[in-house]
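Regression test case RT-17, inverse folding.

Input:
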């Protein structure tokens, strides 16, 4: 069984994330969405809320692609999480050159820790390249419309969070 891991904080999951999940799904039999528990980032949504949103959005994608998609919280090293879930591939989304520099360094370190796990980069589709969870949260916090960047489910959750 080919297992892939797509890690992130997903705070919140955006249309950019969903695009990467949709495109990574046909490459594996099971796609694990690694939901990082990063206490230093101070997430807007709880871990439980982020997992629930991912599960709701990915249920549709799983049906469409025939790939099993599951959410898996983790707090250890990414490469250890990949080993824990049996992943042979780590998927990373890229939006810009700045993303690549950071990701390139991470791949090098991960290869030193475990060279049996490959990293595959997927470029975000053009209409999703500017979407970043951090910016989506800022727009919502300041009363802006984020419906172009997130699904209706996530949009509603953000409206409830920010009133």
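Golden output:
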């Amino acid at each position: 069984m080919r297992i892939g891991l797509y890690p992130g904080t997903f705070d919140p999951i955006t249309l950019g994330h969903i695009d990467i999940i949709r495109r990574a799904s046909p490459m594996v039999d099971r796609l694990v969405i690694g939901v990082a528990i990063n206490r230093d980032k101070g997430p807007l949504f709880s871990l439980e809320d982020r997992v629930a949103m991912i599960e709701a959005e990915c249920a549709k994608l799983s049906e469409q692609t025939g790939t099993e998609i599951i959410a898996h919280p983790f707090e250890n090293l990414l490469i250890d999480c990949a080993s824990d879930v049996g992943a042979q591939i780590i998927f990373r989304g890229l939006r810009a050159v700045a993303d690549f520099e950071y990701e390139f360094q991470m791949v090098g370190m991960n290869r030193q820790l475990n060279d049996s796990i490959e990293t595959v980069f997927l470029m975000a589709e053009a209409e999703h390249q500017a979407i970043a969870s951090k910016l989506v949260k800022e727009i919502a916090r300041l009363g802006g419309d984020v419906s172009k960047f997130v699904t209706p489910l996530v949009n509603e959750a953000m409206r409830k969070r920010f009133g």
